[in-house]
Amino acid sequence: MSQTYQFNMEMTCEGCANAAKRVLGKQGDKVTEVVTDVPTKTVTVTSTLSADEVLEVLKKTNIAVSLKGC
């Protein structure tokens, strides 16, 4: 079952947003949707992975990231 999570990510440009999309894209069908919003520094992810698993994947970008609301 898919869940939707929001993350705060210190994105400064579309390059940062694309880095997030690229690492999440490597998860195949475990990630069904990725929406990045550079002005609000938010990444919304719909996935069958847990929030912690998605967070670990996003950390591979070497951009500061945290689960929104934590």
TrEMBL record:
The keyword Metal-binding applies. Signal peptide: none annotated. Transmembrane segments: none annotated. It comes from the Eukaryota. Binds and deliver cytosolic copper to the copper ATPase proteins. May be important in cellular antioxidant defense. Gene3D superfamilies: 3.30.70.100. Belongs to the ATX1 family. PROSITE patterns: HMA_2. GO terms for cellular component: cytosol. GO terms for molecular function: copper chaperone activity; metal ion binding. Residues 2-66 form the HMA domain. GO terms for biological process: copper ion transport. It comes from Mytilus galloprovincialis (Mediterranean mussel). This is Copper transport protein ATOX1. Keywords: Chaperone, Copper, Copper transport, Ion transport, Metal-binding, Transport. InterPro entries: Copper_transport_ATOX1-like, HMA_dom, HMA_dom_sf. It holds the Pfam family HMA. Homodimer. Interacts with ATP7B. Interacts with ATP7A. Interacts (via dimer form) with SLC31A1 (via C-terminal domain); this interaction improves ATOX1 stability and controls intracellular Cu(I) levels. The keyword Chaperone applies.
